[in-house]
Amino acid sequence: MNLQKMKQKNWILQMLKKLINLDEVTKLIKDDPVRPDIDPRWRITPPREVYTIDGIAGLCVAFTNSIPISEMDLVGRLHTGNIAVFYTVWSKEKGMGRKILFEVLDIMKKRNYSKYITLSPKTEMAKRFHFGNGATLLQENHESYNFEYK
User: What residue ranges define each of the domains in the chain, with the CATH number in brackets?
Assistant: First the structure.
């Protein structure tokens, strides 16, 4: 890894933050183009977490016992589980969505979840993003895609 990439990685790690404050989450998700209607309080109530890289990128993850196929399926779940579901990721700068996804994925892998799945909108942009980042299409649902990261 060259020096510039190491500096950028260090900056990202320093700026990556798990949000637990409702006001911070509310402010961050105003920019969420993927799932803007999910309540900010729900997003930070365990078993769910919200991450940001300095307000430039955001990612929300829920921990479930099965793979959700829709937003309604996701928010209607009561139980925690061993599957990390990335249900929204966005960024204001090119490349930052990828960076936050992989940084949070590294955090999740240290916790040893059994699967790392997305609940992605059924769009070409989502397909390009996840295929371009090495995910495999696990299943196509009526309203969404589930991609898996290894």
Answer: 3-149 (3.40.630.150)
